[in-house]
Structures are given as structure tokens and as C-alpha cells.
């Protein structure tokens, strides 16, 4: 399903005076974006502050780690599998795509076991995209999450092949490990089509090409198009795949698409603000900077608009499913406020049997 960049910003959203550029708080090791209270927001939001997103998020990480560990056992050729594991198991990986997938599935009352294989596959795709983005011919990033990127650790040749191999491994994992008593085969086919669309020539690959050619630096529409394809698409895929696995109807799937795409771009906008304030540490070549293209004032204005848009899109679910939508609401505020630090990527040996038991009980 093709989606235009203009759909990110609806015409009914108000243009508000923008607060001063955010200050980066130094009291924690994770920079925080500080926005002034908004007076003109029309969004009726549940009390997402009553939902403990941190506990929900961290409780799922060990379950996702266990699933990934089982899927990425070392085989021949060992060097490539080691590079694949290195790419997936990073000590600061947040596991946001799989957690959004699980939260969307649980929204409809479906057990998380139905979504867990797809959630793991989405993290493999996420890791593979980072491997490729970091290559010298792409963003030329020597570091990823504070440690050598995969090509810096294993060489460009092995990194390229490891990234290539993670994509089909994810597809295979969805088919082989999704419980057939929970998810029908036609739903799995829809999920695989969705993932393939997301990473393909109209999705993440197109976004990376547009970034390389400097399209993002030409104007607002262009830079948002790059962010939508490079980042918003995977969040959209994560949200809608959870709905597909739960048997959501077309209207609910469309709402999840808009929500995920909006949150994905929102997160990157906030990242861009923080990175510009920190001298763009770790980025070598990417042109997809909204702050550089549009300025801090307009970027913060877009942050406000997208936060409202994401929450507005969830209202239909609040009416139907009550508190089950709170994880999705909380992701929106986390994307802007970064109120806590989430770290995953526990090495395989540290993944406990308790995580496996928790997955089986869900």
C-alpha cells in the first residue's frame, strides 16, 4: 500500500508558535528533549502517565531476546553468523519495532505468542538496515550504539552478507515459528508482504537512496519523505503487522499504519534535534537532517503536530478497547520526552530460561 509523504501532516492540524529550542538535560546520561506545555492541542489523551511503559517495555525485552537467541544459533559459515549476532545483540538496542508489534497485537486481546516470531523478524530487519546504512558507501558510520559498527568489526564484505542474510532469516522465522492455532496462514502471508514492501524499492531502500542523493536537503516535503521511508515505514510495518496477526479489520489496520508511520517520523525528528545539539555524533554522511534543512523552530513545530496526530489516530481504539491502548499512547510521549533509558541486546549466554517460560505462558 503506497502512502504519500503529505499524509503525515493533515491540513486540520493547527500551526502553533514554537517554543524556544530545547535544552539538553545533563542530569542523566541520556539527553532529554524539553518542550513547553502546549495550550492549543485538541487531542483528548487518556492518562498515559498512569501506564508504566518502562516496566512493560523492559519485561518484553527478555522475551524478545530469547526468541532472537533461538533464531540466531551459530552455524556454518560461523563468521557470518557471528556477524549477524553481533548486529542483532547490541547492549543498547531498544527493541522498539518488536515491542510496537506486540503491543498492537495485544490491543485486540490476542496473546503475545502470536506476535513474537514476527516481532523477532522485525528486529532482524531493523538490525540489517543498520548494517547496510552504516557501510562506507552509505552513511559511512564507524560506530553504532557506542561500539564499532558491523563492517568496522568484521569487514565490509562480511557485514554486507550478514545484513543480506538477516532479511530471509526473518521471513523464515515468521513462517516456521508462528503458532498455527493462533494465526491463520493468510495472515502470515499478509505479514510477509508487508515486511517485504517496507524494506523494498518503495520503502527503506528508496529512503536510503534519496538520502544519498541529497534529496532531503531540498525542502520540507523532501526531507520528510526521506524520514518516512527510512524510519516511518518500519514503525508503520511494526504496528500494522501486530494488527494483522490479531485479525484486525481494514479500518483498524489503516489507523495502525498512520499511527506507526507518524510515531516513526516523530522519533527521528526528536533524534535529529538531539543530534544537532550534540554535533551529530556518530553520523558521518546522512543528509536527512530536518533541523539543518528547515531550522530548529520549524522542526519543533513539526514535533508538536506529529505528536498530536499520532494520539488523535488512537482515539478509535480507546473507545473500543479501553486501557489496552495505553502502551501505544505511551510510545508517543516517550518518542518526544525520552523519560527513561531502555537498553536491550543481552548477549545470548545471559538470556535466561525464565524468559522462555514467560513467552510460553503468554
Automatic annotation (TrEMBL):
Gene3D superfamilies registered for this protein in UniProt: Farnesyl Diphosphate Synthase (1.10.600.10)
InterPro entries reported in the protein's UniProt record: Isoprenoid_synthase_dom_sf, Polyprenyl_synt
Cofactor(s) for this UniProt protein: Mg(2+)
Composition skew (Basic residues), residue ranges: 14-30
GO molecular function, one term: metal ion binding
Keyword tags: Magnesium, Metal-binding, Transferase
Comp. bias regions, Low complexity: 1-13
Annotated spans, Disordered: 1-48
Top-level taxon: Eukaryota
Any one GO BP annotation for this protein: isoprenoid biosynthetic process
Stated family: Belongs to the FPP/GGPP synthase family.
Name under which the protein is recorded: Uncharacterized protein
